[in-house]
Specification:
Length: about 290
């Protein structure tokens, strides 16, 4: 045919077969892992050389990384750390329940529920606007000083209350984002079936919303596990407070390193689990 020109030539070459493609991918992955490991060794070695060749390193090592002080301070700080763990577990349960209640109230529709929604918004804005350490100080020292009949005077109680109030405000917004991420047709279908607003939220919207925000809730879990140590400012003898007492007695800071190690032993695995779960959730949503 006139004007058809020469046939097109495919210069890309043949496509690799399935097995060949897997081999190439595996080879590239192994090469990338080797490069990553080598670069990590180089960076860590350079950082260690930079620190260990410092003229003040021997004094810093004696003050912060003394093996004898580490072993001596370990038992008391571990005992305080278990108190941190118990406070964290109690606070986490209370936060999840209170935050969900706040999010459900804020998700209610209709003018009749406006006062409840307004009070919830005021509470969330107030709790998120006050630094958590100030809230702990205000409740931990202020409420017991009032000496009100029937009101607990325990500093631990009010320290945990401050954590619950502050974190529940942030967690309520996480829940609310999850509720709003559920398509409006779900709510409309529930109402069409004769469910009330509470029933629609309880049986339809909230279960889907919680599944959507589990990764964000796990991040709050990691954050709370560390922030629970802030109650030390009330004099509660948890891990940081025990390290502070050891420092005041020996003028050595190794106890703080012990406390840091204990918190890392918990927070790092939880953080890695959070990353794994988030990636699995992303893959599930893409597959769906």
């Amino acid at each position: 045919m006139i004007g058809s020109g020469p046939p097109a030539i495919d210069i890309r070459g043949p496509e690799p077969s399935g097995s060949r493609w897997r081999d190439l991918t595996s080879e590239q992955g192994a090469r990338g892992a080797l490069i990553a490991a080598a670069s990590t060794v180089v960076v860590v070695s350079a950082a260690l050389w930079w620190i260990l060749t410092s003229e003040t390193w021997p004094a810093v090592q004696q003050q912060f990384f003394n093996p004898e002080n580490f072993a001596e301070s370990w038992p008391a700080i571990v005992g305080g750390f278990w108190l941190d763990v118990r406070m964290f577990l109690v606070a986490e349960v209370a936060i999840l329940v209170l935050a969900l209640l706040l999010a459900v109230v804020r998700a209610l529709r209709g003018p009749a529920f406006f006062p409840l929604r307004a009070l919830t918004v005021v509470y969330i804005d107030l709790m998120r606007g006050i630094p958590i350490i100030l809230l702990i100080l205000l409740l931990g020292f202020g409420i017991p000083a009032l000496d009100l009949p029937g009101v607990p005077r325990s500093r631990m109680f009010w320290g945990l209350t401050a954590l619950v109030l502050s974190y529940s405000a942030y967690t309520a917004e996480v829940y609310r984002a999850g509720i709003e991420s559920v398509h409006e047709s779900q709510r409309m279908s529930a109402r069409a079936l004769g469910l009330t607003q509470w029933q629609a939220l309880r049986h339809v919207l909230v279960p889907q919303a919680v599944r959507n925000v589990v990764p964000a809730l796990l991040n709050g879990f990691v954050s709370l596990q560390k922030d629970v140590a802030l109650v030390y400012i009330l004099g509660i003898r948890e891990a940081v407070r025990e390290a502070q007492i050891y420092n005041a007695r020996t003028f050595n800071y190794t106890g703080y390193v012990v406390a840091a190690v204990l918190f890392l032993l918990v927070s790092v695995p939880v953080a890695r689990f959070t990353d794994w779960y988030s990636e699995r959730d992303r893959r599930r949503k893409r597959a769906g």
